[in-house]
Design brief:
The protein is an alpha+beta fold. The protein has helices at residues 5-11, 15-22, 27-46, 51-64, 108-116, 229-240, 278-296, 319-337, 356-372, 399-418, and strands at 77-80, 83-87, 93-97, 103-105, 119-121, 125-128, 137-139, 146-148, 161-169, 191-196, 208-213, 244-250, 302-309, 344-347, 376-379, 431-436, 441-446, 455-462, 468-469, 480-483, 491-500, 503-504, 511-514. α2 crosses α3 (27-46) and α7 (278-296) runs parallel beside α8 (319-337).
Length: 516
């Protein structure tokens, strides 16, 4: 014999309990069914011929039972005359229902725990216990704060990897781009920031003591009030890689030099002067960040990427001197963390920065870095990108310029990863030709391909004649070339091939221009 829902409504004093009993999968229904079944069995055994009497006896007996006040934890109990309580499996009060049917959670965490099957973890809060005994995600019942250790914060899936992104250089990397806005620069759940010790004031040596959600501006050795192209780079990474967490370490310092001895510090690995020695400081902070990351995300693969923007303080240095110090700095970071293939992307200065001749050698050194060092890439500066500090500021990127530069760096870091001698060179995807009649010059430009490049071969053909190779290119990895001495009315075709250790790629499909 099966107890029927009709009897339920006779003793259910509230709509909540009634709905639980009507639910065939509920623990409440199961508990009451056990009580009713025992009563039915006893009545039938006493007088099996009196079915109607049995039913009457059951109805009377069930009605008299104080089921709501019972001890079975699966049944809601009457906590006081004004409310019914639901406890979790550990005996903690999770929620209550008043006589009007209003459901109130004592705290969100306890109510959620009832539904999600979470358990109360001593010293942690409500959490899910992982196979290793750790709680990958837990919620503090006192504050409602959600803490995620091993899980991807958007999806709840395990994070595929963590990328530690270290920012080095001077002011343009050190969060000087303006304006910023709380409406646009919101905290992203997968972009974290390495926190420099707040008790240490610049220029005293500091290190990283914690990992926290990245704010704008984020924690830095020398705190600024703007936004960095490094933040825009991080946003592009998490947009493209759904299961990746980025931890940004801003080690950059405005006004610092690579060779030039400035009061804000020097990046040279062999610098012994009196001003802040930035390389050993940031290297120590990077290693501290890696230790914290491994503790927060045990078992999750960790990669380290670098972004560099510097040079304004070193205007006037020779190409050879700056190139040597730059290569030593990037190599020093790789050696210092034991990652010889750590990729670096270098960003160009504002093209209109004055005086431009002082930056020529710096730009040439930056452009040539990918040929000198594997796993590096250079991205050009953003034209018209200056003006952060004032209308006369041609040195510092404004917000839009920093955003474009950050997006270019995102493409550049992928080129850096493929910049190895074992990568087969392939032709650029895009080539263009621009004729300027006033100067009689044809400018050829192309995109940098995602492969190893040590040089480019640029050719042109006049009126479908023989191909002529452009000569006199002083910077082999520059992605522009100029042809002069052409006659108006001619039809010009141009093409480009990529050169690396494994040979020369095919040429691009010819692009045509008519000189009018």
């Amino acid at each position: 014999m099966v107890w029927t829902p009709k009897a339920t409504l006779q003793f259910a004093n509230d709509i909540i309990t009634a709905s639980l009993v009507l639910d065939e999968g509920s623990g409440t229904r199961e508990a009451i069914q056990e009580i009713a079944s025992a009563l039915i069995s006893a009545a039938v055994a006493a007088d099996p011929t009196l079915a109607s009497a049995v039913i009457s006896a059951i109805d009377a007996r069930v009605t008299a039972e104080d089921l709501i006040q019972g001890t079975d934890p699966r049944v809601p109990k009457l906590g006081n005359p004004k409310r019914f309580l639901v406890d979790d499996k550990d005996g903690r009060e999770a929620l209550f229902v008043d006589p009007n049917g209003k459901v109130t959670a004592q705290d969100f965490i306890a109510a959620f725990a009832l539904i999600a099957g979470m358990e109360f973890l001593p010293g942690t809060g409500w959490g899910l216990r992982g196979k290793n005994g750790r709680s990958p995600i837990y919620l503090d019942p006192a504050t409602g704060r959600i803490t995620i250790r091993d899980l991807h914060p958007d999806t709840g899936r395990p994070a595929a990897r963590v990328i530690v992104q270290v920012l080095i250089g001077q002011s343009n990397m050190n969060q000087t781009a303006a304006p910023v806005s709380s409406r646009l620069d919101v905290i992203h759940p997968r972009i974290m920031s390495a926190q420099w010790d707040p008790a240490v004031t610049w220029p005293a040596a500091s290190t990283v003591t914690a990992i926290a959600p990245a704010t704008t501006p984020m924690s830095a050795q020398k705190v600024r009030s703007g936004i960095s192209p490094g933040m825009f780079l991080a946003r592009e990474i998490v947009r493209e890689m759904e299961d990746t967490i980025v931890v940004v370490l801003d080690g950059s310092v405005s006004g610092s030099g690579l060779i030039t001895d400035t009061e804000n510090g020097v990046w040279g690995v062999n610098y012994t002067g009196a001003n802040p020695k930035l390389f050993p400081r940031v290297l120590a902070a990077l290693n501290a960040t890696l230790r914290l990351v491994r503790s927060m995300y045990p078992g999750v693969p960790v990669d380290v990427w670098g972004a560099f923007h510097q040079g304004e303080a070193d205007g006037g240095q020779t190409l050879a001197a700056y190139s040597t110090e730059l290569d030593a700095l990037l190599s020093g970071f790789r050696t210092g963390i034991g990652r010889p293939t750590m990729p670096f992307v270098l960003g160009g200065t504002v093209p209109e920065a004055t005086p431009p001749l002082e930056y020529a050698n710096i730009t040439a050194a930056h452009i040539g870095t990918p040929a000198r060092l594997p796993y590096t890439a250079f991205v050009a500066g953003v034209k018209n990108g200056g003006g952060s500090g004032s209308v006369a500021d041609t040195v510092h990127y404004h917000r839009e310029g920093a955003e474009v530069l950050g997006k270019r760096m995102h493409k550049g870091i992928k080129r850096a990863i493929f910049n190895t001698a074992t990568t087969v060179p392939h032709p650029p995807l895009t080539v263009s030709a621009t004729w300027r009649k006033s100067t009689g010059a044809l400018t050829i430009s192309w995109d940098f391909p995602e492969c190893r490049v040590t040089n480019f071969v640029v050719q042109y053909s006049i009126d479908d004649g023989a191909w002529v190779t452009v000569t006199g290119r002083t910077i082999p990895l520059d992605t522009t070339a100029t042809v002069t001495g052409l006659n108006t009315g001619s039809s010009i075709a141009v093409r480009v091939a990529t050169v690396a250790e494994l040979g020369t790629s095919a040429y691009t499909t010819p692009v045509y221009a008519t000189l009018i």
